[in-house]
Every structure is written in C-alpha cells, then in structure tokens.
Specification:
Elements: H1 2-17, H2 22-31, E1 35-40, E2 45-48, H3 50-56, H4 60-63, E3 72-74, H5 76-86, E4 95-100, E5 106-119, E6 122-132, H6 133-195, H7 199-227, H8 230-234, H9 237-251, E7 256-262, H10 270-289, E8 295-303, E9 306-313, H11 330-344, E10 348-353, E11 359-366, H12 367-376
Parallel strand pairs: 7-8
Antiparallel strand pairs: 1-2, 1-6, 3-4, 4-5, 5-6, 8-9, 9-11, 10-11
Helix pairs in contact: 6-7, 6-11, 9-10, 10-11
Length: about 375
Amino acid sequence: MLKLQQVLGVMRKMRSEIELSEPQFGELTDLFGISSLVIDNEGAISSINDTAADMLGFKVQELLGTLLMRLVVDGDRALSHLLHQGSKSSSFEPFDLVLHGRSGRKSAVFVVPVPIDQVDGVACSIMLMLTEKAKRQASSHTLQHSELELQHFANRLIVAHEVELKRVSSELHDGIGQVLAMIKFMVEDASRRLKQGKVQEGAHILDETVQRLRDAMDDVRRLSSELRPSTLDDLGLLPTVEGHCRKYEDAYDNIKLERHLNVAEAEIPAHLKSEIFRIIQEAMNNAAKHACASTVAVSMLSDHGNLILGVQDNGVGFDTKQFTGGHVSQQGIGLRSMRERAESTGGFFAIKSSPGSGTTVEVRWKLHSVVMRGTANGMQSN
C-alpha cells in the first residue's frame, strides 16, 4: 500500500505538470513493479502494462479492447459500481477483485482506481492499479518484521549505551572521584599544618598533592581517549590503532600482538573510523580479559571494493550460540555492541569460535555502499 501511495503521489504531480499518454502511465507504474491497466467508461481495456499482462498470463496486445468484466471471477458488483460511478464522479474507493488468467489461474487483487482523463470533473478513463493480495500480505508481514527488528536493534543500542554510561560513571566515581577526594583532604591537611607553623610538613604534603593531581590528569586523559581518541581526528585511524596496539603490548606483556594494516588511510571512509576503532578495541579487550589468549592478530585490508577488518586470537574460544538468545554477560554485551556498530554502518559482521579453538571477529564493508551511505548523511570520506 505504501508503494501505491508513492506512485499515486508521483502520478498526481506529473499529471499536474505534463501531459502523459495512457502507455506512458503504464510505463511509469512498470518502473515501480506495479500492475496497472486503463479502462474506458464501458469497462474495455484501452491500455495495460507488461506487469499486469504477465500476471494474467497474456501478452499486452491480446488484452487491448477486452472487457475487463470477462476476466472477473469475483467482485463484478464492485466493478459495475465503479463503471456506473465513473460517469458521475472523479474520486473512487479501492475494492477487491478476483481475476482469472489464460491458464485459469485466479489472482485475488486489491484495486486502486485513479481517474486519468477528466472532462468537466468527470472521469472518461480510469487507471486501475492492481496489487496481488498474497504479495501485499507478504509485504505487510515483511514490513512488520522489519519494524520489529528495528525496534529490537534500537533497544540493544540503548542497553549498550547505558552500559557504557555506567562504566564511565563507575570510572569517574571509583577512579577520578576518589583521587580528587584524597587531594581535597591532603590540601586541607597541608593548610592546617602551614597555619600551625609546620612549614616543612605542609610543603611535603603539597608535593605529594601535585603527584596525585598528575595521576588524576592521567586518568582524565585515559578516559577521554577511551571515549574518543583525539588522534582519530588529528592523525587518522591507522596511527590511532598503532598507538592503541603499543599501549596494549605494554599492558599485556604476556600476549604476542601481530598487526597487518594493509590499507591506506584515504581508503577508509571518515564515518567508519570511530566504529572500526571501537570494534578493534572491544575485540582486543575480549581476547585479553575473557579468552586467555597468548596471540592476538589485528588485520585490515582493502580487497576488490571491500574493506575487511579482522581480529583473531588463539584463546579458549566459546560457543557462539549462547549469545544468540537472551543471555547477556559483559562479554555478550561487547559482542553485540560490535555487531551493532558494524551493521549500523552497512557492514557484515561475522564471528567464528568454538571451545578450545580461539575466536575470529570479521567485519566487511562494501566501500561504494558505505561511501554512498556516508554521503547521504552529509559526510565525506577523507
């Protein structure tokens, strides 16, 4: 029904601006994959497009001049009412018909009548746009399913966002908040000692306070970098990934880290860079915290119009089926977050793992597709 409304809107606009012949109307609806035919006041078919003729199993020329009523199995009263109303009105109500084709196959259709030739406000010819009910129901079911999937997707994004906010809140409270509370206490203690004339003790406490402030500033920089590294904007994705890999090696000296970044910075669309970095960050974090891996390999390459990202480890692995249901652990939220980041940017996400065989995360983007998507959102690649 949505497609019919779109076509009707286009046709009304075109009809108000240019003159279209009946065959041209048919060609227009053919472009949208919609069956259409035109009948005169007697109900004879004066024009029919290829889509409608194919539905009935005829060639276009075989149906020209045929009374539509001869093809009606059920709904003849509604058609008769339309023909009677056509000589007196310029607006019509949709109705149902059952038509039979050459082979005897019956097609139940939903009919939307549109007046196309009018004299003094009365229709001389009427276009009938036909939608097979089976296809209409299937389209409706698909649309409902898509809306449900979109709602689930939005809900998962909200959950992932809330988890990230809780993590940041915890970092601020347990990390920076505690350090600032300690600094406040130390400054108050130093002030009290200075007022008591204990200058050396007060100066020593202030020296320690300066170090605590440096620690707090480091925590702020670290948290800021985790939210969005400034190097993404200043230097680009590849230097940011390289910098993250160096920090990773310092933090996990028991893990051998391999990187194969065989792609040029200019080949990576700008609106993908943040999402790619987050996926790499999450996958590497999972390998260190959950997989007990001794080797992690990060790869990125451009191949035949595809941008391919991979993160592979030799850890303990897991059963991927446990994350397809309602079970949500911290690791499960991370995996879903990666999938949603990939799919929301037009990528194809895949994860391969089984107990004892390690884990491979792979995301593929069609570069032309994501560039077009980014451009449509007002963004351009570097």
